[in-house]
Amino acid sequence: MHAPKIDNSTQQDSNASSQQKGSSSALSLPAVHVMQLALDAGKLNVAGEDHGESDKKRDGEKAFSSAEVGGKYWEENEFPATAKVDAPKADSPKLLENFTVAAMKEIITAINAADTPEKKKTYFKRLYEQVEYLEELYENNEDDVEIGEADQWDELSAICVKVKNEAVKAKVEQAGLDAKTELERVVTGPIGTIAEASMARAKAMNAAASNQTATPGVWKIGEEHITEIKKIWDTNDATKDSYKLHTKDQFDTEYDAWQPPPP
Length: 263
Fold this sequence. Notes:
Number of strands: 4
Shape: globular
Structural class: alpha/beta
Number of helices: 13
Order of helices and strands: HHEHHEHHHHHHHEHEH
Radius of gyration: 20 Å
Helix content: 55-70%
Distance between the termini: 32 Å
């Protein structure tokens, strides 16, 4: 389960992936390919992805990673925070909740600022996507102490159901107004912006990876988090270069050049 992708109009930092794509010409240099892009066998490799694209070729990526690196293959929300048995996930439900609520807050702001019914309808559609994801997050993590016992859990859960039901009404730009008002009331507190919530997730991912550098395998995370981890490393953070970090384009180049062995 991946958090819904945030549109550029509500998260400026989300264009990092397209910027990476624009620099792909450097990948044609053989020396760069051999020395910097190769996955590190027997070590932890963290690589960027577009979740939708990778979901379509997940089995192939798993086979490729197994052949080239060994160890395990983790999707974004599967990697553990520590090497301990039954450790919580690095990209924890609480971090995902904060990220989703931050997205909802910014979308609500965009709804209020929209000057046409068409724009309102577009933003409501994005709000419904976030609400459905949050509802699924709650359903899958009812026993999580940070989420399951949070003060706003019951209220948000109820509103999620309401917004989801209203989404099927004909006039979408009007259908969610009552629920939006309730969301504005409940979705408060020190959640911060989407960018701040996303960076908090990246910091947790970086901490988990840097503490498990000898764990062989490939951990796929959103490309925006690769960009954020690089920003962390650029501050001369102690975790810099403690594990192999690959952009989406770098991983895809290796994957596209790989041919599975014949059966």
